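INFO  loader      accepted 1 record
INFO  loader      residues=72
INFO  predictor   begin
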Amino acid sequence: MGGGGGGKLKPWECPSKCSSRCSGTQYKKACLTYCNKCCATCLCVPPGTYGNKGACPCYNNWKTKEGGPKCP
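INFO  predictor   done
INFO  writer      dumping tokens
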């Protein structure tokens, strides 16, 4: 899994942060689902709509079974 949080967000802040994070994708529903799941665990969402994952190590390091990125 993501290796336990470390972020400073409150759980109730995740939906608005993920809404911003996912604003640039055509796959908004999937993006919001995974972003909110990752945020709930990591309490962090990287800035911007793409990239910048180094700002949230937990978010960045959480991988799928196939080894791809779990968090958008």
